[in-house]
Design the sequence.
C-alpha cells in the first residue's frame, strides 16, 4: 500500500531522535505504519528502512518476529481471546469456541465483511478477571456468553467509539520539547554525565 | 462485563488489610495523574535522593536488600554494583509483563505511572546515567497511554529532563513499546528488541547486560515493580523498609492470585508473613476455593514455576523457603487449580505457551517444546501411545537435563532434584516448559496413563534413568517423534 504520510514522517523523525541509534526506533515506527494503514505494508517497510538507514530485509526481519505486526490486512476489530492457564480454568476455551460460532471464523480468520479478525492469544495480564479478551488491545473482563454477543452487536452497530480501529495503540504519545531534553547522543560520543562527574568529585574531595 | 476500561482503572486490585508500599495510591481514582501523585508525596523520594551524593543512594538501596520482582529475585543493589566504570551506561525498565498468571506491572503502570517514573529517575541518579528506556509490553495500550501522559506532565513540571527540579541533574526517560513476544521479557532479548532487532536472547557470558548490554555498553535492566519501590524507600529509609517483610526478603510484593479461588485479585503482601494457605483461604485474601472444592495443585510463581501441592500450603511467601521446596515465587503469579482440573490439560496449556513463544534460536527449545506440545495434545485427544510418557520425559531431558521439581516428589530428597534446572539452551524459556510436565507426571502419572491407547503394561523407566539418556534412546526418541506430524495432522488443529 503506502509509504508514510508527510505528517507521519515528521512524527517518525521525532521518535528516531530519542534513540542513540536510529534502528532502535524500528518497533515504534512499525506501529506507526500499522496505525496509518491498519497493517504493515511492504512499501511502508521500505520507507522505514530509508528512515533508519538499514535494508528493507532487516526491517522485515524485525517485523516478522513480533505477533502484533500484521503484514496483510486484518479486520477493523482484532478480537484476541486469552486461553492461557488462568483463563482456561475459567472458561477461556469455551469463550473462544463461542466466538468461532458467533463470528463464523477460526482463529486467524477474517469475517467476510472485513470487520473482525479472531485470535487465540497467550496471557494478556488480566488473570484475576478471567476469562478476558482484548479488542484492538482494549480489555474486556470476565466475559460471559451474553457479554460476548453484546460486544459483537455493539461493535457491529458502531457503538464502541472508545475502541479505535486496528493499528492504533496508545492515543497519547510522548512528546518531549527540545529544550526540555537532557540530550541523547550516540554511544560512541556520549560520556559520563557532567553532573555525575561533578557530584562524585565533590564527594571524594 | 466491565464497561469502558479506557477511563476507569482496570479491575483486579484488592485493598486487603496490611502495609502498602507500592499500591498506596491504588484506591484513588486520580492516582495516575501528576496532581494525584504529588498530593500524596509523589516525587518526595526524588527530592531526597537529589540532596544526597549519588553513591549514597545506591548504598541505601543495597542496604534495603531490594530483591528484583521480575522473576529471578536478584537483589537490585548488588546488580547495580556489577557495572564497570564505563560510560555511557543505560537503564532499561522491563515492563514486558507476560508470564502466564502475572498481573501486577500493568496495574503499577496504569494506576501509578509517576511512582515508576520517579523510581527511574532515582535509579539514573544513583548510577550516574542520563538515558532510561521504559519498555512497555505492546499489548498494553492503556498503560502506554498513561505512562506517556505521565511523562509529558513530568517533563513539563521539570521532574524529568533537563535540570531536574532546578538542579544540575539531567535525565531523559523515554517510552518504548513492544509488539508481542514473551521472550522479550528476558533481559538480553529485551536489549536486542530495543536495538530494533528480533527479540532473541544473547549468550551469557559474555553478554551480561551490566557489562555489555544496550549498544554493548553497561546496562541495568530492572522490573517495573522493583523500581516502583524506590520512591517509598528514599522517602523513608532502608532501615524502615526492613521493618516490613522478613530478614532475607524485606518489603512487600504484589501477588496476582487467579484460577479457582473465590476472590481472585492482586494483593500487596508482606514477604514471609503469610503462607499460601492464608492466601487461598483467609478472608483477607481469596476466601477459599470456589464451590468449596478441594485444592489439587497450584502454581506458586508463574507458568515457568514447578507446581506445588496441598502439602506445600504452609510455606511462607518468601524466596528462600519456596526455592528450597523446589519452585520459585518468580513473578508473583499464583494460580490455584481445584480437584476438577485435568492435570494433563493444564500441563498441555502451559507447555503450549512455551512452544508458541519459543524464539527459535536454540534447537532443543525450538524443536523440543513443539514435540512436548504435540505429544501432550495427542494424549489429550485420546491417541496417546504406550511409551508417550517416557518419550515426553526424554524430550524434556534434552532441554533441561536432570533436575526435576522436588515438590512433586518429596521422598526423593533435595539432592536428587536441584532447582533451578540445568539447561541446554541460551535462556530458561525451554527448560521452563519441562517444569509443569515433570511436576504433573510425578504426581498424576495415573492421569497420563489413563489417556494412552491401551494401558501401559510396563510403566517404563523412571525419571532418574532418563536423566542420563544414552544415544540409542535418543535416536529412538527422535524416530518416535518424527512421525508425530502425520498423527497430529489428522487432528482438528
Sequence:
Amino acid at each position: 500500500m503506502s509509504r508514510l504520510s508527510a505528517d507521519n514522517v515528521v512524527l517518525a523523525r521525532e521518535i528516531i531522535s530519542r534513540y542513540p541509534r536510529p534502528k532502535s526506533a524500528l518497533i515504534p515506527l512499525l506501529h506507526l505504519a500499522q496505525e496509518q494503514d491498519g497493517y504493515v505494508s511492504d512499501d511502508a517497510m521500505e520507507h522505514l528502512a530509508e528512515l533508519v538507514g538499514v535494508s528493507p530485509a532487516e526491517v522485515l526481519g524485525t517485523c516478522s518476529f513480533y505477533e502484533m505486526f500484521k503484514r496483510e490486512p486484518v479486520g477493523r476489530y482484532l478480537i484476541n481471546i486469552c486461553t492461557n492457564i488462568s483463563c482456561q480454568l475459567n472458561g477461556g476455551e469455551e469463550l473462544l469456541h463461542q466466538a468461532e460460532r458467533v463470528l463464523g471464523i477460526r482463529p486467524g480468520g477474517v469475517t467476510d465483511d472485513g470487520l473482525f479478525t479472531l485470535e487465540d492469544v497467550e496471557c494478556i495480564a488480566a488473570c484475576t478477571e478471567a476469562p478476558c479478551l482484548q479488542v484492538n488491545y482494549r480489555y474486556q473482563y470476565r466475559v460471559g456468553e451474553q457479554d460476548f454477543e453484546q460486544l459483537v452487536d455493539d461493535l457491529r452497530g458502531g457503538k464502541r467509539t472508545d475502541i479505535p480501529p486496528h493499528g492504533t495503540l496508545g492515543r497519547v504519545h510522548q512528546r518531549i520539547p527540545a529544550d526540555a531534553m537532557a540530550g541523547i547522543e550516540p554511544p560512541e560520543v556520549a560520556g559520563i554525565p557532567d553532573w555525575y562527574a561533578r557530584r562524585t568529585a565533590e564527594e571524594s574531595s | 462485563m466491565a464497561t469502558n476500561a479506557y477511563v476507569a482503572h482496570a479491575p483486579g486490585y484488592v485493598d486487603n488489610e496490611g502495609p502498602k508500599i507500592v499500591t498506596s495510591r491504588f484506591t484513588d481514582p486520580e492516582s495516575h495523574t501528576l496532581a494525584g501523585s504529588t498530593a500524596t508525596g509523589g516525587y518526595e523520594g526524588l527530592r531526597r535522593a537529589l540532596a544526597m551524593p549519588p553513591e549514597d543512594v545506591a548504598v541505601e538501596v543495597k542496604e534495603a536488600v531490594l530483591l528484583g520482582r521480575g522473576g529471578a529475585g536478584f537483589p537490585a543493589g548488588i546488580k547495580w554494583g556489577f557495572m564497570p566504570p564505563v560510560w555511557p551506561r543505560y537503564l532499561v525498565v522491563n515492563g514486558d509483563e507476560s508470564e502466564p498468571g502475572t498481573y501486577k506491572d500493568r496495574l503499577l503502570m496504569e494506576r501509578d505511572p509517576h511512582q515508576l517514573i520517579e523510581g527511574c529517575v532515582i535509579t539514573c541518579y544513583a548510577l550516574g546515567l542520563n538515558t532510561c528506556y521504559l519498555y512497555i509490553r505492546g499489548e498494553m495500550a492503556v498503560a502506554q497511554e498513561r505512562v506517556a501522559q505521565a511523562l509529558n506532565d513530568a517533563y513539563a513540571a521539570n521532574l524529568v529532563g533537563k535540570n531536574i527540579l532546578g538542579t544540575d541533574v539531567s535525565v531523559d526517560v523515554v517510552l518504548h513499546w513492544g509488539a508481542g513476544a514473551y521472550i522479550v521479557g528476558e533481559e538480553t532479548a529485551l536489549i536486542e528488541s530495543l536495538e530494533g532487532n528480533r527479540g532473541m536472547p544473547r549468550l551469557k557470558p559474555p553478554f551480561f547486560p551490566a557489562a555489555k548490554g544496550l549498544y554493548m555498553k553497561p546496562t541495568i535492566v530492572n522490573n517495573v515493580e522493583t523500581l516502583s519501590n524506590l520512591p517509598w524507600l528514599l522517602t523513608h529509609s532502608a532501615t524502615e523498609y526492613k521493618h516490613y517483610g522478613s530478614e532475607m526478603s524485606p518489603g512487600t510484593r504484589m501477588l496476582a492470585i487467579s484460577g479457582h479461588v473465590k476472590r481472585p485479585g492482586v494483593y500487596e503482601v508482606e514477604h514471609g508473613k503469610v503462607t499460601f494457605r492464608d492466601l487461598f483461604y483467609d478472608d483477607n485474601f481469596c476466601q477459599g476455593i470456589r464451590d468449596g472444592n478441594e485444592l489439587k495443585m497450584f502454581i506458586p510463581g508463574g507458568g515457568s514455576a514447578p507446581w506445588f501441592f496441598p502439602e506445600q500450603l504452609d510455606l511462607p511467601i518468601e524466596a528462600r523457603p519456596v526455592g528450597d521446596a523446589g519452585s520459585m515465587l518468580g513473578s508473583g503469579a499464583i494460580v490455584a487449580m481445584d480437584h476438577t482440573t485435568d492435570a494433563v490439560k493444564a500441563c498441555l496449556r502451559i507447555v503450549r505457551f512455551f512452544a508458541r513463544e519459543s524464539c527459535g534460536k536454540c534447537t532443543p527449545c525450538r524443536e523440543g517444546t513443539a514435540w512436548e506440545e504435540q505429544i501432550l495434545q495427542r494424549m489429550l485427544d485420546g491417541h496417546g501411545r504406550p511409551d508417550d510418557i517416557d518419550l515426553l520425559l526424554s524430550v524434556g531431558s534434552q532441554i533441561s537435563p536432570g533436575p526435576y521439581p522436588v515438590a512433586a516428589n518429596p521422598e526423593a530428597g533435595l539432592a536428587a532434584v536441584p532447582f533451578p534446572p540445568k539447561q541446554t539452551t541460551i535462556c530458561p524459556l525451554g527448560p521452563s516448559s519441562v517444569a509443569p510436565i515433570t511436576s504433573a507426571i510425578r504426581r498424576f502419572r495415573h492421569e497420563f496413563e489413563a489417556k494412552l491407547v491401551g494401558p501401559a503394561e510396563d510403566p517404563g523407566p523412571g525419571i532418574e534413568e532418563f536423566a542420563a539418556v544414552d544415544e540409542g534412546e535418543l535416536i529412538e526418541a527422535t524416530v518416535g517423534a518424527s512421525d508425530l506430524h502425520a498423527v497430529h495432522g489428522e487432528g482438528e488443529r
